[in-house]
Structures are given as C-alpha cells and as structure tokens.
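Journal club prep, notes for RB
We'll compare a predicted complex against what the paper describes. Inputs for the beta-D-glucopyranose case:
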Amino acid sequence: MSEPRGKKTHDDMWDSGTQGLITRIAVVAALAGLLFGFDTGVISGALDYIGDAFNLGDIGKSAVVSSVLLGAVVGSLVAMAIIDRIGRRRSLIASGAVFIVGSIASAVAPGVGALDIARLLLGVAIGISAVAAPMYITEIAPAARRGQLVSFFQLMITIGILVAYVNDEAFSSNGQWRWMLITGVAPAIVLLIGMRGLPESPRWFMLKGRDADARKVLEKVNPTEVESEMAEMRRGIDEEKSASFRELVQPVLRPALIVAVGLFIIQQFTGINTVIYYAPRIFKDAGFGAGSAAIWATVSVGVINVLATLGALALIDRVGRKPLLYTGLAGMAVSLSAIAVSSMLSSGGTITAADLVTVVAVWAFVAFFAISLGPIPWLMASELFPVGVRGKAASIATVVGWLGNLFISFTFLGLLDLIGESATFFSYAAVAVLGLVFVWFLVPETKGRTLEEIEEGFIARAKARLKD
Ligand code: BGC
C-alpha cells in the first residue's frame, strides 16, 4: 500500500537524519572559516586606530596585518605534523582552543609587540583549521554534495569578513579597537562546544587501520552505502599508505600538487586581499574620503562577497569547477583592468565618473573571485590527493597560499607608492590571464566523482604520461 501523501517513509526519515548530521558537521567545521574571515578581516577597520594608539607608520601597520598571515604559514606546517597523527577532528578542536587564547591576548595587548605575537597565534589557529576543516568536510560529505559543503567553508570565511567589517563600524565611533578584536572569542567558543559529539572522519579511521570505527561513522553519515564506501576506501588506502614527504613529490603525485599549489598562487596573486584588507584605503583614494562613506563602501564589498559565494554554492556541483574558474578568472581580469584604468583617470578630489567605475569594478572583481577562486582551491586541495598523502599535500598547498597572501598584503602599500595603483592592478590582471591558461591545460574536472575516482583518474593519467 502506498504511504499517505506528506507522511514520511522510514527511508525518508533515515535520510533526513543523515542529512541533518552531515549538515551539522559542515556548519560546525565551517565555523573555523568564520573565524578565519573574522580574524583576517577585522584588521581593515581597526588598523588606523591601532596605528594611532601605538604611533605606527606604514611598515608597522603592514606588520600588524601580516603577523596573522605569518602565523597561518606556521599553522599550516603544524597541521602537516598533526593532522594524520591526531586526526581531523582533534586538530580542529586544538585550533579552537588557540583561537580563544589568541583573541583574548590580542584584545588586551599592552603594546604593538604583544599585539603582533597575539595575532601570530591567531594565525596559527587559522592555519591549522584551514587545512583541517575543509578536509574533515571533504572526507565525510557524499560525492554529489561535496563541492557545496566545502564551499560552505568559504561562505563562512566571507560571512566572517562581513561580520568583522560591521563589527568594526559598530566600534569605530570612538576608535575602540580592543572591542573590535575581542568579538572573535564568541565563535571560537561555539566551535569548541559544537565539535563535542561529532564523529571523526571515516577515512582517517581507515588510514589508522580502525575499520570498525570507520564503519560506525559511515552507518551514521551514509547508511545506504556502507559496504561500497568501505570497499572503496580500503582500495584507496591499499594503494597509498601514509606517505613520507619525499613520496609526495614523486612523479605520479606531482600533477595534483601542481594544480593545488597553482590554484592557491593564482588565488592570492590576483590580489583579492588588497581589497579585503585595504578596502577603506582604495575607496579613500577614489575620493570617498569622508569617514563613513569609505567604511560603508567597504561593508558593501563584504556583502557582495557573501552573496556571490552563495551563487558558487548553488552552482559548483551543478555546472562543475572548471566553468566557474573560466568565468571567474575572465571576469577578474576585466574588472582588475577596469580598476587600473579608472584609477589612472581619478583626480583624487571630488568624486568623478572614474571613481564610480572604480567602485563598480571592485564589486565585480570580488563577485567574480567569490564564484571561483574563493572556494575552489580549498576544495581541490582536499579532494585531489590519495588519503595517505592528503594531509601533507593540502598543508603544502595552503602554506604556499599563505606565503602568497603575506607577500601581496605586505607589498601592497609599498607598491602603491612605488609604481602606483594602476600598474599594481594591471599586474594582478595579468596573473588572472595566466590563471586562465593554467586552468585550461592543467586543472581536472572533479564534479560528482568520488574521492577515490578522482585519485585513480589523476594517477592513471600521470602514469600514462610517465610511460610516454
Ligand atoms: C582566501 C582569503 C580571502 C578570502 C576572501 C579566501 O578563499 O583564501 O585569502 O581573504 O577568500 O573571501
């Protein structure tokens, strides 16, 4: 007899329970993304007040911005050491604890040295969690929703940045930068509490030879395909036992490493963080000098970043990764060139048509970034590698990303003085064009394939190429 309409069948209930757990895992892990966005973005509005409080010039200010990035480099290296050893889940919990300490220490810092060290600590937490969170989600998510769920991590980064901008605005009337910084404690506490009771990644259990534990998790997150998933994971593990660093650069894995590292280089060297960290400065240069106009223009960047990332979530498993990369990179090349041209025409005085073009071009640049280079490097760093090398490989790719971020953020203000805004943005546009070539020739489409299928395809192709 058929079930009455609207009444849930047993299977539906199983399914919604499973979906609920997977969504909970993705949301909690992605809180690490919110902290990443908050703690990197918060500095844009706080910087001038910190500069005044500690009497800092451009170099001192750049150091306050960059210390968090240097910490993230260290954090990615720490992730490399711990993620296979203690697991994805416990690495995330460890990062949550460091987030709490770093947030409190930065808000109470008595001097600029202490502030730089506290921000370095926050960076370590960001670096660890930016490897652990996407990997944790990737290894638990079903193939058909993997892109969307990992992009959720990026969505939380963008929400974190937006919250940071609004938070800065709220405390800006009397320059209370310490209050701006302390807000980050709240999501860190929620992350720590939220991780309690969540399961470890089944693929990590398999890596450790704990098949029974892996099976228990699969029964919760993918109950209809336990046997096939177990078999597939076992095959993946047999092929690639936990590997040393040297094995990681072996010829069969090299193409995957080149793609993951390359995507992070392009993500950073197209200059997204000049806008994310220094947006008030760019808008001030475009004539939006009067305090709150520049800040609201900055908030608008945060809003567009969030909205366009929602677009990426809707599209990434449907149209695939490569079409989004083509559209995003082409759009970024055009909008970066438009910023370069309009800044040449800007008089720096009252707002002209060229200044309005700058604003629209900055919005377009952020939107095109958010549908493509925002989420995809994080996703691919977690999905391209065999499980035995996944932790180390993803850490290397993100280390390179953080170094790129550090380089761009640290050199931006100096470059503006040295070669001017126009040449600076033209050079970012050139990187976007190179990025298109890179994607065309080297990046595979991973939409809808299981992690094991992706590895097999990649390794088979590399082996075939080696034979030639
Ligand atoms: C990048 C960050 C950037 C953010 C902007 C992330 O994917 O790694 O460097 O600030 O996107 O949304």
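Talking point for the session: Residues 150 and 176 are 35 Å apart (CA to CA).
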